[in-house]
Design goal:
This protein is α+β, with helices and mostly antiparallel strands. The chain is built from three helices and nine strands. The chain has one domain. The chain is 19% helix and 32% strand.
């Protein structure tokens, strides 16, 4: 893929995220297995969200996939199953400044009013990226912008 001009990144990645995440329903959650983490040289095993269509996503600390990240937001981990993603968009520049983040992660709103986004670590030190696989096997990347 060619490099996306900075002024077009927001629209491009918002549309990409909507295409792959909007209206998905979380079928179950699980932590990445030790074998899965070892296969990509990660020391952490983040929570993965598996959707009803078989696609799944998991947080990464950064766009390069240097290690697992964490999910943050307003949600109850054991109550994510059955929730539908009703809105997908990247954190605005203002929201990023208010959280003192250098990077803008994707935010997913859920049908129960909760919201979830990837961050670098469990202490929410900065916005994180997400990776995953679509129902048809396409590798998915949701970078920070």
């Amino acid at each position: 893929m060619s490099r996306i001009p900075k002024e077009e990144q927001n629209d491009y990645w918002n549309n990409y995220a909507k295409r792959h995440l909007l209206d998905k329903v979380i079928a179950h959650t699980r932590y990445m297995t030790e074998d899965e983490a070892n296969a990509i040289d990660w020391t952490t095993r983040p929570l993965a969200l598996i959707m009803e269509d078989g696609s799944y996503i998991f947080p990464s600390m950064d766009d390069e996939g240097n290690d697992g990240g964490a999910f943050a937001g307003e949600f109850v981990e054991n109550e994510l199953v059955g929730k539908k993603i009703t809105f997908v968009g990247y954190m605005t520049e203002e929201e990023s400044r208010n959280t003192r983040y250098n990077h803008r992660p994707i935010i997913m709103l859920l049908d129960d009013g909760g919201w979830i986004y990837p961050c670098r670590d469990g202490e929410r030190n900065d916005g994180g990226a997400m990776f995953g696989t679509s129902a048809n096997g396409e590798e998915l990347t949701f970078p920070v912008i």
